[in-house]
């Protein structure tokens, strides 16, 4: 990987803390993401995932008082040196709870707000809203009051409302952790579409390992502010002992394969069900 125009995120030896904390919350983190890549951050609660996302979004130290050291380059901008406003329109961030992000009374208004705030001409605002409605499968929702929608639909609206900025980078902080099963499926499907059809660069903190291994190009496991294991989902999760030691549950299929291995049956260490199906000869594709 070079540092060409396709590099969207480059962190080098980044340390971060809040003014209120004495110790570093993010310690010596280096990571890169190129256009169209999806990275999933995992690790136990409190390990620093949200803080790292805040640094990447320029919110720490731009909005939340704190200290960030090391090099942070997002879409060619260093938000620590140039100020987080230099990132305006380039990064969208969506949190767990869609309720706190949605502020208007119609889906259309909600989606139009960001491009209007960017001062874009009316036609451009309309075309971006339509694009986001299509990208997230929200056609027909334009005139609905977001408050009447299901949790999953609200989260789609929250994602769509940052997409209308046409960000290079979408950050998702546990986007499904407050949703029920149906809502989770809806949102995960939409995110997969954004990656696969729209080539968006996405960094998500997410604890649903089966989904993470399915969509992530790379997974980073964090512990106590540091990235302790990183690579492709296969690289990371086939080392089941290391993953388990970090308090992250490996994919169910990997656990099964490991149990079989302990009983003397070697099926390899698949991290996705479809790889195991191939091994069993019951693959549908
Ligand atoms: N605004 C804040 N001010 C001070 N400390 C914080 C703040 N937000 C989070 N922390 C602390 O930083 C550590 C990492 O938290 P966080 O980044 O939210 O972890 P995660 O998202 O992995 O659960 C925790 O110890 C947490 O208490
Ligand atoms: Mg968090």
Quick tags:
single chain; about 280 residues; alpha/beta; Rossmann fold; 2 domains; six-stranded mixed beta sheet; three-stranded antiparallel beta sheet; 12 helices; about 20% strand; binds adenosine-5'-diphosphate; binds magnesium ion
Spatial extent as radius of gyration: 20 Å
Multimeric state:
single chain
Helical proportion, percent range: 25-40%
Beta-strand residue percentage: 15-25%
> Count the helices. How many?
12
Q: Compute the number of strand runs.
A: 9
Overall mean pLDDT: 93
Low-confidence region ranges: none
Q: Could you name the CATH homologous superfamily of the largest domain?
A: P-loop containing nucleotide triphosphate hydrolases
Give the count of structural domains.
2
GO molecular function: ATP binding; ATP hydrolysis activity; ATPase-coupled transmembrane transporter activity
Domain ABC transporter: 9-249
Pfam families: ABC_tran (PF00005)
Subcellular location: Cell membrane
What would you say this structure looks like, in words?
- By secondary structure, the protein is α/β, with parallel strands linked by helices.
- The chain folds into 2 domains: 1-90 and 167-233, Rossmann fold (3-Layer(aba) Sandwich); 106-165, no CATH class.
- The chain is built from 12 helices and 9 strands.
- The strands form 2 sheets. Strands 5-6-7-3-8-9 form a 6-stranded mixed beta sheet, with helices on both faces. Strands 2-1-4 form a 3-stranded antiparallel beta sheet.
- The two termini are 31 Å apart.
- Magnesium ion is lined by residues 49-50, 173-174, 205.
């Amino acid at each position: 990987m070079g540092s060409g125009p396709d590099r969207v995120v480059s962190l080098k030896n980044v340390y971060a803390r809040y003014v209120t904390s004495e110790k570093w919350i993010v310690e010596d983190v280096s990571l890169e993401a190129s256009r169209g890549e999806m990275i999933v951050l995992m690790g136990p609660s409190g390990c620093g995932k949200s803080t790292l996302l805040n640094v990447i979004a320029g919110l720490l130290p731009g909005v939340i008082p704190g200290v960030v050291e090391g090099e942070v380059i997002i879409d060619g901008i260093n938000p620590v040196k140039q100020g987080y406003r230099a990132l305006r329109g380039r990064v969208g961030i969506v949190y767990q709870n869609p309720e706190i992000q949605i502020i208007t009374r119609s889906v259309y208004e909600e989606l139009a707000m960001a491009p209007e705030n960017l001062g874009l001409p009316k036609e451009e605002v309309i075309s971006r809203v339509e694009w986001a409605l299509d990208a997230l499968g929200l056609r027909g929702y334009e005139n609905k009051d977001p408050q009447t929608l299901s949790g999953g639909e609200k989260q789609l609206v929250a994602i769509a409302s940052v997409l209308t900025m046409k960000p290079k980078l979408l950050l998702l902080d546990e986007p499904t952790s407050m949703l029920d099963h149906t809502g989770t499926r809806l949102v995960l499907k939409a995110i997969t579409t954004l990656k696969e059809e729209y080539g968006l660069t996405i960094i998500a903190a997410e604890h649903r390992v089966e989904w993470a291994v399915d969509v992530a190009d790379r997974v980073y496991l964090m512990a106590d502010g540091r990235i302790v294991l990183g690579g492709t989902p296969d690289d990371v999760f086939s080392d089941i002992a290391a993953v388990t030691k970090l308090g992250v549950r490996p994919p169910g299929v990997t656990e099964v394969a490991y149990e079989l291995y302990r009983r003397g049956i070697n099926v390899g260490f698949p991290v996705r069900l479809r790889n195991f199906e191939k091994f069993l000869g019951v693959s549908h594709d």
